[in-house]
């Protein structure tokens, strides 16, 4: 049986390496440790769906069910030996092998000729502004954290990627504005052999 890997599944298993815990505690730790930039937990239900999938695949098990007065029932989950082996394998593979990912931005860039060059430059300039704001926000948040570097390497990586993207987008905008990169309906028709 091959179990499908996902960043959220890896996060759940990694949290359970620390100790058995319930889903709400996992969500708290993800927020407290600002791991919501690493895994998508925007949908509250996604962690519960992931836990259910991991339980079905026997990577985690129910350790206990508790109920405090005036509180809903809470199920505490624990990592199984198969879950630990799977997590170790996933981490080894994810660290060593670049994944084929399909983010939206490169896809949008492939459709750039649909927009006029000036509009493309304006939109990319907006993206650069959003990246700059994100960089300032993340850098400020990291400067306020007093943690060993080991616990911040994913943040370092994300900042490096954001900086590289910002530099590249700025260069692309400059090329669009200077005319070093441009196109027209007629040019596209000639190039693709389709009517303009």
TrEMBL record:
<dbReference type="InterPro" id="IPR036388">
    <property type="entry name" value="WH-like_DNA-bd_sf"/>
</dbReference>
<dbReference type="InterPro" id="IPR036390">
    <property type="entry name" value="WH_DNA-bd_sf"/>
</dbReference>
<dbReference type="InterPro" id="IPR005149">
    <property type="entry name" value="Tscrpt_reg_PadR_N"/>
</dbReference>
<feature type="domain" description="Transcription regulator PadR N-terminal">
    <location>
        <begin position="12"/>
        <end position="87"/>
    </location>
</feature>
<dbReference type="Pfam" id="PF03551">
    <property type="entry name" value="PadR"/>
</dbReference>
<protein>
    <submittedName>
        <fullName>Helix-turn-helix transcriptional regulator</fullName>
    </submittedName>
</protein>
